[in-house]
Amino acid sequence: MSRFAAVLLLGAAVGGAEVLQIPVEGEGARYWPRWRGPSGQGMVEDKGYVDRWSNTENVLWKVELPGSGNSSPVIWGDSIFLTTSYDGGARRSLLCLNRADGKLRWETFAPESAPERAYPKNGHASGTPSTDGKLVYTYLGNHGLMAVDFAGRQAWHRSFGRTNCLHGTACSPLLYKDRVIVFQDQRSPAHSFIAAFDKQTGKTKWWTHREEDTGWGSPIAIRALQREEIVVSSQFKVNSYDPETGKQLWFAYGTTAEVTPTPVVGHDLVFASSGRAGPTLAIRPGGSGNVTRSHIAWQSPRGSPFIPSPLLAGDYLYLVNDMTGVATCLEARTGKSLWQGRLGEAQRESFSASPVYVDNKVFFTNDVGETYVLKAGDEFQLLHVNRFHEMTLASPALVDGIWYFRTERHLYAIGRRH
Fold first, then answer.
1. pTM of the model
2. Which of 6, 49, 81, 292 is buried most, with the most CB atoms less than 10 Å from its CB?
3. What span, in angstroms and rounded, lies between the C-alpha atoms of 221 and 22?
4. Largest CA distance in the chain
5. Which domains does the chain carry?
6. Over the chain, what is the mean pLDDT?
């Protein structure tokens, strides 16, 4: 069975026949071409990945990265792409590394611009690139949206001028059919937007004004009943847009003032976690207008993550509250709490990477490079803890039995030597 077929079967099993996050199709399903992989939800169906490592154990190679950044690696073929920044964000670039040994192939800089304000932990290169195998698309805040070919040549660039964000920018571009979609909420709501651009030329397909002024998540594309939607979770509400026109389809209130987690989809529901330990909402998509009273299937109590996105695996929704270091497992269909367990010492802003599901295990990586390996299921079972002894804010990429981890200074390839 191909990996793409496995992803589709997973969508049927986990997401029901009606609603699912649109997976990457074709050759891209073999790789890790976007934020959270082909499924867009951190799900890995392949086998053969090690579940133990350190900064020396099961390390196939390790390279030092130039500059600084928290974006996750994306992979297509034998290439790894990730972003970085220099001089306090004044210069930003896209890196291409060789997947076999991590050696740098090329580096392409975006046009220079004055850096926007950024929270130190966030930095100026947090948005993960996306690729369709032809071009690599990266959103770099004040440095704009840039498309680069696989030889490192800039194909096009769009500048949006100066952004005014509370803690900097972090959106990962969404590729949908012939367009690339980004959203940027700003402290001056008059400048907040979600927009779609032609993948080949960068020309605007549509541009929709948003009212929200604070948010750092990424848009997702879903199939909902008889239509497709672009869903964004941000300040105070979750919005859905028509991917062809940018027209708002529905919205639901219930999130908090600062939202970073990107939604996941399954069981005919969109699961959107608030920031700052607010609630998690389970929303039935496909509605129209204000669906707060009609389409919220359940809402959890406070305790959701501020930074990491949720993970949906089978019947279970996994969360980690990065303000307390407590992981939670909810019954996805009902929101019933099945277990909670502490992952290390309680500490504010202790997790940034989003969890990953591999081989019936859930992997939570905290900011100091400790990965807590839990058995998936309705009971809290901590199997062991792996330690890099390096700050680790980026989520991993997984391809062909190898983990690719970006730490504060390095990129690691983790796997079993043959």
1. 0.94
2. 81
3. 6
4. 56
5. 3-414 (2.130.10.10)
6. 93
